[in-house]
Amino acid sequence: MQESLIDRIDKGRLPRHIAIIMDGNGRWAEEKGQDRLYGHFHGVESVRNIVEGSAELGLEYLTLYAFSTENWDRPQQEVEGLMSLLVETIRKEVPTLNKNNIRLHVIGDTNMLPKFAQDELAEALEMTSHNTGLNLIMALSYSSRWELVNAVRNIGMDVKAGKIDPASINQDTLQQYLTTSKFPDPELMIRTSGEYRISNFLLYQLAYAELYFTNTRWPDFRKDNLYEAIIDFQGRERRFGKTGQQIQEETQLA
Ligand code: IPE
Ligand code: IPE
Ligand code: MG
Fold first, then answer.
1. Is 218 assigned a ligand-binding role in the annotation?
2. How many domains does the chain have?
3. pLDDT digits (tens, 9 = 90+) for 232-244
4. What is the mean pLDDT of residues 101-114?
5. From its phi and psi, is residue 164 left (phi > 0), alpha (psi between -120 and 50) or beta?
6. Is residue 200, in this structure, part of any structural domain at all?
7. Which residues make up the binding site for substrate (predicted)?
8. What is the spatial distance between Cα 96 and Cα 34, in angstroms, rounded to a whole number?
9. CATH of the domain at 130
10. Is it the case that residue 1 has pLDDT exceeding 60?
11. Would you say residue 251 lies in a domain?
12. Beta strands in 108-175 (DSSP E)
């Protein structure tokens, strides 16, 4: 009998945090002669499947890039459709999140979201806040440059207010001012749909992430595709600037 993909994953060496750029909804739909929103609609099914798969694996953090700061510049009809889909999905999914002990978090400039979406989100955050399993982080109206500028501005204000000494600013300080301050950096970043770029996603946090690209369009991405990415990740040697020999020695000692 052929070993299933999930059995090939070493559960003791899971990445703590996986971040995904869910790309290709529009092309998936266009290839089927459908409207781009049809693709986004089907993309939600992949979100459900991957969130469920991540919780089953016992992953600690999953960040999903759902809407970028730059995506506001898309045609108004698409943006409005995405916002409605977002609200509707959140409303429907909260009971499932609670059932699976999943806590929802949001990163991004949520003030840009329409009021009805902000309210729905706030409620979902509150209703899942007691959960202790998977942390599901939705990046909404998020971009890394927005986040970094924001962090620098806030640090500047705290320096001015005398709360921090500029000479003491280090990597930990900056980390605390990012929207991801409570989360470890992603160890694996997956992008679907064959684009080999980061598109303003977690530029600082991905410094040492392993990058995994697949041609699969997001609406076709399922648990098995996630398992494949994790297996690929587990086959890599993460060196963090050191030599391969040093890493091998450290692994032997551990
Ligand atoms: C990703 O799919 C979803 C969002 C950016 C909201 P796209 O809508 O970017 O799909 P493509 O890249 O045009 O195929
Ligand atoms: C990145 O995808 C943003 C999300 C998946 C939410 P885009 O489709 O917007 O990125 P580009 O435009 O191809 O770089
Ligand atoms: Mg795209």
1. no
2. 1
3. 999 999 999 999 9
4. 97
5. beta
6. yes
7. 24-28, 36, 40, 68-70, 72, 74, 191, 197-199
8. 29
9. 3.40.1180.10
10. no
11. no
12. 135-142
Q: Is 23 a catalytic residue?
A: yes
Is the CB of 66 inside a 6 Å radius of any atom of ligand 2?
yes
Residues 6+ apart with CB under 8 A from 127: 94, 98
pLDDT in tens, 202-236: 999 999 999 999 999 999 999 999 999 999 999 99
CB of 199 within 6 A of ligand 2: the answer is yes
- Determine the pLDDT at residue 202: 98
Per the domain annotation, does 173 fall within a domain? no
Q: Which of 71, 98, 131, 200 is catalytic?
A: 71
Q: How many whole angstroms separate alpha carbon 23 and alpha carbon 40?
A: 10
What confidence tier does 3 reach under pLDDT thresholds 50, 70, 90? confident
**Which two structure tokens, joined as six digits, stand for 42?**
């089907």
What's 221's DSSP letter? Answer: -
Q: Is 214 domain-assigned?
A: yes
| 71 Cβ below 6 A of ligand 2 | yes
